[in-house]
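Minutes, project huddle
Topic: does the predicted pose make sense with zinc ion bound?
PN asked that the exact inputs be recorded in the minutes so nobody has to dig through chat later. Recorded below.
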Amino acid sequence: MNTNHLVLYHNIDQVLTLKGVAEKRGRHPKKEDLGLIENANVVVNTDTNDVEWVGPSHEMPIEYGDISNAYPGSGELWMPELIECHTHLVHSGDRHHDYALRAMGKTYQEIAKEGGGILTTLKSTRETPLYNLVEQAQADLERFQKYGVGTVEVKSGYGLTLESECRMLEAVRALQESSSVLLVPTFMPAHMTPPEFKGRTDEYVEVICKEWIQEVARLKLAVFFDCFIEDGFFDFKQTQKMLEAALAAGFKLKLHADQFNDLGGVSLGVEMGATSIDHLECISDANINKLAQSETVGVLCPGASLFTGMGYAPARKLIDAGARIALSTDYNPGTCPSRNLPLMTTLGCSQMKMTVPETIAAVTYNAAAALGLEKVLGSLEKGKQFRVCHLQKTSYEVLPYCFGELD
Ligand SMILES: [Zn+2]
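Predicted holo structure (tokens), as shared on screen:
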């Protein structure tokens, strides 16, 4: 057998495959579903970077014994690379002064009145050239990598003119050319109504539906379309209209829903086949069941709850009902300036009563499912991408235990 295209990693202390999690499509993840193999071998096809074989070293088929490219993995724990399925990575300007004002008891509206809030980021991002957007995002991306993350979703939404939204997405494209992190771009012009359309949100929605969605689709700048359905942002009808236009133009769907108010976003997202619905801090019991009975992944963002001091999403209820639950940083300058995905697993355990296996599934397989990539990422199995996180640890349980200090 010709083994020139194969590489063998042998005698790895522990490999976590998540095979059982993948078989259950991410629902009710239990310890036994993590597929822990002691003293494991992994064979990789270097032509495709796919896993060719994985299992206990003593069970490896004899033909792989001829592989000359062989490396030992002793002293390590391997698991699928972590997947960050919800970020606002590309932006300019920081918001620490907002946080100082918030700590003094000022409300969001008061901060906005003093010139802070999302408008600060909007103004700064609009004025920042492509090169600088890329440079800043590159540094953030490297920080994500230090936390074991290998795939990152990135949204537009701080430009809110067609030109600046495209510039944000072009920054993602430019980043992808120089980074080994897999990037998944999302077009999110419905982050808020921009100042030019103040009081005319219906007109803004019309422009998005009639012009912007078509142009971004034509330029192939994004895979997903996302929208913030909330009081004071976009209502049910406006959201429905945009999702329909995005779907017709070939985008997959995501939604920011039920963060502060239930405007029917979960029902709408599920009925329209959204790949994920994100936030869900105030999801109702009826909608928990609706989400659980669907393929749509619920993405929870406990870092935003910690940072703003607001409530956490009901992860326990969602998982018990059978929902597919992912965890994310929601990395953004306003409500969660953290790139520390392992820390989100700690918050999952301490604040949302998730078990360790549930948090592991939430940053691997279920996060891949939140990006529609679970057939190629999120578990280590034959035919899936060989993208692994190497931990110098004795147990996968350290991921939430390490309190964000992975190395
Ligand atoms: Zn977000």
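Observations noted during the meeting:
- The mean pLDDT is 95.
- DSSP finds 16 helices and 14 strands in the chain.
No decisions taken; revisit at the next huddle.
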